[in-house]
Amino acid sequence: MLGKVVVHSIEALVSDAEAASYLRRMVQVIGCSPEQLAVDIYRDVKPLGNFLTTKHTMDHFRKELWDPQVTCRKSFSSWVQGGKTLSMKSKIRKYIETRLDQHQSPDMPDTFYEAFDQRVGEKS
Fold this sequence. Notes:
By secondary structure, this protein is mostly helical. The protein contains seven helices and no strands. The longest helix is centred in the first third of the chain and has 17 residues, at 10-26. It is extended and about 75 Å long.
């Protein structure tokens, strides 16, 4: 999107990246290995059993979740009852500010700056 100049704000870029992340997760292939299918667990749990407390579920469930960075997962009524604390726009702005505050530029070798200064001097 940046390459084609169709993004008009950093907020739009973050929102689009969130949507792309969600879509990437939704089209991911569902694993069918013996470990992922956990056939042995079905035998152990039996009908009407509880899979949530098994070690297998604890070991694997986080890999299957999609964790949004800016999207609100509450229902509309829960969001309203919670005081409508953050709009999508303000949540995205807060996310951007946090990321910018946490960003640390990589150290560049002196040779990079020398080469850069030389190239800029050639263009002038």
